[in-house]
Amino acid sequence: MANVSQTPDWPKLSRRLPNVVIAAVPVVFLGLFFFYPVFTILANAISQGWNGFTDIVESPRARNAIWFTLWQAAASTALTLCVGLPAAALIARTTGKQGAFFKALVTVPFVLPTIVVGGAFKELFEQMNSTLGVPNLNHTAAAVIIAHTFFNFAVVARTVGVFWSGLDHQLEEQARTLGSSNAEVFWRVTCPRLKPALYAAAAITFLFSFTSFGVVLVLGGLGQATIETEIYRHAIIRGDMTSSAMLALIQVVVVLVLVLVNSTLERRTSVTTQMVRSPIAALGTKTKIGIGCFTVAFLGTPLVVMIERSLSVGGKYGVRHYTALFSKIPQLPTTAVEALANSVVFAAIATVVALTVGVICAMAIVARGGFTSRFFDLGAMLPLGVSAVTVGFGILIALDEAPFDWRTRWWIVPVAHALVAVPFVVRSVVPMLRRIHPSLREAAALLGAPRSRIRRQIELPLIARGLAVAAGFAFAISLGEFGATSFLPRRADTLTAPQAVFRLLGTPGDLLRGQAMALSVVLAAAVAVTVIASEVLSADPTSRSRQKPPIGS
Amino acid sequence: MPRLSIPLVSLYLTLMALIACGSDTSGADQREENNETVTLTLLTHDSFAISEGVFEAFHDQTGIRVEVLTSGDVGSLVAQTILSADNPVGDVVFGIDNTFMQRLLDQSILEPYKTSELANVPDRFELDSTYRLTPIDYGDVCVNYWIDALDGPPPRSLMDLVQPEFAGSLVVQSPETSSPGMAFLLATIAGTPDWEHFWTQLKANDVAVTSSWESAYYGDFVAGGGSRPMVVSYASSPVAELIYADPPVDEPPTGVLLDSCFRQIEFAGVLAGTAHTDEARALVDFLLSPTFQNEIPMNMFMYPVSQKAELPPEFVEHSQLTENPLSLDPAEIEARRKDWTERWVEIVLG
Q1: What residues contact residue B262 under an 8 Å CB cut-off, 6+ apart?
Q2: Each residue of A285-344: pLDDT tens digit?
Q3: A131, B62, B172, B309: least CB-packed within 10 angstroms?
Q4: Taking chain A (553 residues) in consecutive chunks of 10 residues, what is each chunk's mean pLDDT?
Q5: Residue B112 burial (CB count, 10 A)
Q6: What value, to the nearest 5°, has the Cα angle with vertex A489 and ends A487 and A492?
């Protein structure tokens, strides 16, 4: 029943001027903080000739890395889709407190330190090995893929879940009335209409796994080098910027192709809905409990390990590691609590910036066709697919002269976080915007509403829940310290909580490890609270008073 | 419908207000920079730590303020220093070690400065005859063992590690991603008759390899719940295990294989292009003064190079340093790093 969305008629030129100004926001932001730095560092390397490129392409190690990067990212995406889809079904049907807690739980992995998650998975693999006889997966490609599934679970569960809940469910009812089984209804009726959200979630998961660094290093073996880890090795360990830039160039090209293919697929499958409220068929109790238990067990295990260690004080249990977060210790330039405060402020800023830039990009992608749409689509997705080393070092050499010497400004930290968060915002919002039926906009325009008012009063409310999902992702990404900031010089007073965790784990001793665990738990709690808050704020007030949909039927 | 967007808009405005507050802070910083006092920027790695008040003492003596910028691990620090050579981010760089120093010395981005404080520093620490890099502290990368987790007596030499009684006991870091991993590879190159053969035997003895110190120490090593009783770490790690033990202990739970220790020396240098050469030199002097040197052990778990510095009691009592650490010429390390690590990968992966 998918029908291709029409490009709505664009108002006359006189009305377009404000649009041009608004559209300039993401162009300037991404241009200045992403494209210009990345271009500078790549151009620097290319200007030294293409010999480096031939060397890289001909080296078996680099070829292996490229191949491994591609197939593990594809496998991670496939597994995440399979594992995350049932949770999406659950999220589509849960509202209120329970739903908010569930959504918080799936988002928490973003901020869990890789080293802690890696340790938890390692123990799990070893137990599976000794008790069930499963081969020990530690340091294998399978471990990397499972960990990527763990981190990206929320991308599939939440992006697809929120889209699913907003579909017109009358079609399913009709199919059931005509005698289709539940499975048939899902595969023939629901699944095809979920495709835009599935493609969006797949794109994010793929790029996330494509440029993943810590997971590959901690859980992968020596043989599991990816383009990202090879870029790091050449640039940092070998000091060979040319080889590193050549690999970065290959990375950019691959990402460009992928994003183009993905946006085409997403566009072709986009569905519109009349926004008729119709109840979604409920899941059976057993199914619900099954999905819930699996999700809690899969995502909760590292969390439980972390909480247990954070509370274990001198062989007993206590909260001393938590109270210690308020004291200054030599390993950190500020107290852990101050680092946490920094993280929260940066995350708030990164969220606002990413939402602003991302929503404008999304609107431009949906409203315009052809080149403009592709331009914004590619521009907004690339930051997730380009290595942190490339972006960090790019900023270091590009934004280095007054009045643009911004390398050590405190705000470059949230800006770099926002770069990685923008793709999450765009992919959460675009499918939601696309399905707003053109007749809604046309009717409003016919009644004389200006474009800005249509945006404010029709589009924004209809994508509010998508925005909540996007805000949750952006916040978690910044709190988890994703992106290029590890490769920029940082002032002591901009220390963030994940950096503090890393430093606490850098000196031996159970006290320091206990504090690192306590800080990680607080970080996870901060994300959970934010997700719950954004869910409550964005909840559709009408849905709360609605009657529960009938079961089965 | 409009009701719906009100909470969102208010959230958005709150966040915007937060940004505004943030911008104010940066304005204040800027004003401070424009004051008459010179503010030096010390560029260093993430493991840099020093007590509050140490740079206050420097300010009281000289009127110079110090701002610390950290740049990731030592490899990342070197890469960033080289990349930003035309417009340096800092005035003084600290934390360049002997495994990376040649990479910086090959470029002309450091100014020579022979501080009079070097008179208190033993000659063996002065690896740079051009005086562009001044030694500040040192430490050793050694095999550590968890005393109670060993079945028998601890190993006494590097060659013991390939004996059957230590099969499956050791976890090391990859020299391709980790600086202690690199130091241990260098230790085997300097300390065994045939390092390639040594690694072949070590692999046959089921050595585990991780990408980073953290995943070795807190993953495979018994300290973090792993099963391996031996790990590549630092000579000072047992002291840290003692100081940060929980519950407190009288003796460190770990010991050090002194025969496996590779010496790491950390250097500081004045970055060419600084607008404050004299002040930068004063900071290098200060890094070698007892005020700073005495603070090094308890903050960074390294050892001060100055003979005037005093070690804290925990270090005097519990830390073991070998008289004869293993070492290699920094120029040779830089020239052969690629060949060595590639050969290492072939052996360990092959």
Answers
A1: B140, B141, B142, B183, B184, B186, B187, B190, B191, B325, B326, B327
A2: 888 899 999 999 999 988 888 899 899 887 789 999 999 999 988 889 889 999 999 999
A3: A131
A4: 43 61 91 95 83 82 93 96 94 81 90 85 85 87 94 94 86 87 87 91 94 90 89 90 91 90 81 66 85 91 89 88 92 92 95 95 85 88 92 92 87 94 93 83 84 80 86 93 87 91 91 93 93 80 42 37
A5: 13
A6: 125
Q: Which residue has the tokens 């569960």?
A: A157
* Euclidean distance between CA atoms A430 and A108, whole angstroms: 24
Tokens of A155: 């991308």
Considering only CA atoms, which of A415, A343, A429 is closest in space to residue A34? A415
Residue A167, min C-alpha distance to chain B (Å): 18
Cβ contact A489–B47 (<8 Å)? no
d(CA A403, CA B275) in angstroms, rounded, equals 18
A498 within 8 A of B231, measured Cβ to Cβ: no
Report the C-alpha dihedral over residues A303, A307, A309, A314, rounded to 10 degrees: 180
Q: What is the largest CA-CA distance in chain A?
A: 73
The verdict on a CB contact (< 8 Å) between A239 and B79 is yes
Tell me the residues of chain A between 518 and 547 that have a Cβ less than 8 Å away from chain B: 534, 537-538, 540-541
Tokens of A341: 């405060």
| Angstrom distance (rounded) from CA A208 to CA B85 | 32
CB proximity B199 to A under 8 Å: no
Q: Which residues make beta-bridge pairs with B173?
A: B210
Residue B142 CA to residue B119 CA, distance in Å, equals 29
B215: CB partners within 8 A, 6+ apart: A115, A118, A119, A217, A218
Residue A411 sits at the chain B interface (C-beta within 8 Å): yes
B42-63 residue pLDDT tens: 999 999 999 888 999 999 999 9
Closest-CA residue of chain A to B209: A222
Q: What phi and psi values does residue A212 have, to the nearest 5 degrees?
A: -65, 140
CB B116 within 8 A of CB B210: no
- Return residues 300-319 of B near A (CB < 8 Å): 301
- Owner of token pair 């679970």: A153
Backbone angles phi, psi at B111, to 5 degrees: -95, 135
Tell me the CA distances in angstroms from A507 to A469, B47, B233, B234, B300, one per residue in order.
Answer: 37, 9, 10, 10, 9
CA nearest B230: which of B189, B200, B260, B199? B260
Smallest Cβ distance to A237: which of B89, B177, B299? B177
CB neighbours of B60 closer than 8 A, spacing ≥ 6? none
* Residue B1 tokens, joined: 């419908």
| Interface contacts (A, B; CB < 8 Å) | 197
Whether residue A217 and residue B237 make contact (CB cut-off 8 A), yes or no, is no
Quick one: tokens of A115? Answer: 């080293």
Q: What does the DSSP 8-state code read for residue A490?
A: E
SS3 assignment for chain B: CHHHHHHHHHHHHHHHHHHHHHHHHHHHHHHHHHCCCCEEEEEECCCCCCCCCHHHHHHHHHCCEEEEEECCCHHHHHHHHHHCCCCCCCCEEEEEECCCHHHHHCCCCEECCCCHHHHHCCHHHCCCCCCCCEEEEEEEEEEEEEHHHCCCCCCCCHHHHHCHHHCCCEEEECCCCCHHHHHHHHHHHHHCCCHHHHHHHHHHCCCEEECCHHHHHHHHEHHHCCCECEEEEECCHHHHHHHCCCCCCCCCCEEEEEEEEEEEEEEEEEECCCCCHHHHHHHHHHHHCHHHHCCHHHHHCCEECCCCCCCCHHHHHHCCCCCCCECCCHHHHHHHHHHHHHHHHHHHHC
CB distance B15–A349 less than 8 Å?
yes
